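Late entry, written up from scratch paper. The run itself happened at the end of the previous shift, but nothing got recorded in the book at the time, so transcribing now.
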Amino acid sequence: MSNVVNPAQPNETVPGAEVNDEIVFDPKTSRRAVVSGTFGTALEWFDFAVYGTLSATVFPLLFFPGFDANTAVLASFATFGAGMAARPLGGIVFGTLGDRIGRRDVLMITLVLMGLSSVAIGLLPTYATIGFVAPLLLVILRFLQGFALGGESTGAQVLVVEHAPHGRRGLYGGFLATGSPLAQSFASLTLTGLAIFLSEEAFNSWGWRIPFLMGVFLLVVGVFIRRRLEETPAFKENQRKAAAEAIPQERALAVLIKRPLTVIRLVGACAAMAALFWICVTYAVNYLTSVLGYDNSVTFGILLIANLISIPAAIFGGWASDRLGRKKTFLLGLVLQAIAAATLFPIMNSMNLVATTAIIAVALCGIQINAGTQAAFFAESLPTSMRYTGSALGMTFGGLIFGAPIPFIAAWIFQNTENGTVALTTIALSIVALSMIATLTLPERFKQQLHEVK
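Output as recorded:
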């Protein structure tokens, strides 16, 4: 390691920092980036997870009471899809801003927007109070949630990876990825506790609002942490070079013109994660309660345990990708997802709680291994000037195309076919195969300096 010099202040040494080709990585700043990114991601996914779970259980009763039971579930899952549909738009808008004005300021906007939207859902009157306006407002707020998440999830990944020292980008991304399973666990724990200690009438009346209103506290803490964060070294270096060489800024969505195949590959790589995740945390909840007859508290408990088991898998995925490479580690996660996709419904139908929890945990572990690898893998696929936008397009369109329709499609298949489990299993396995092909075609650059990616 050479002497550490801050390029902004050539004569000032940064104690304890690491330098890679004139890019300084301060350990304190890197750790703060991980904490900020993880907390923000946890807040975003907590709200998203609570909504996903309640859309399978309570919302059909509260916001679509005029429909029969099956149609109400379909309508509720449709509002869930509205949030997924908004994510690409959020990815485009916030990704473009993030590549132009910086990662930190944009992530502050996404955090506040997500938090306020979630609190508003917690205060929303139901159909019994304001009629059809209730589901309309629910869709709008859900859209705003997804819009914010489209910018937050990718932006946090880019911010953390660009703050990470070379050789530890995967590990830092792995710690960031724990935000999702932590949020899922906290959401399941919260909903399980409410389901246990409240009567069904109380939970349906006001108990379901509590998780959304908790967003006020999480929002305040998140803003406090994020305000203390600095802009990333890679972005500042890119801005410095662009100014010195009089390079004009990339046009909005330039990545679609210059790197269209890369974006398509990123979408394909995200496909399995998006599909399997929502099958496990959204449709499986409805299947376990409505079809198999489990109580809500049991179903929420299954998700809680499975999510807790999956948390170390995210860190393992990031750590392994720094040593084995991104592709090998990502493919390992996809293999676990394939195993889960092939056996999920037969195991759930066995009515064995331990086996059901285990297979959902296998699916989530595979997903979290991918999530732990993804931050660095996707960032290394694109240059700094279009990294935020390109990564956001890959993630959000992967979720829109392969994740958002899954709960609705699954519900429709089981309502209108005799072999619903076979049909959905075939769809899931096909999507995993697609992700494997897309992963194999992505570049492997984990040994390259991030700001040197062209």
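The radius of gyration is 22 Å.
(Scratch paper discarded after transcription.)
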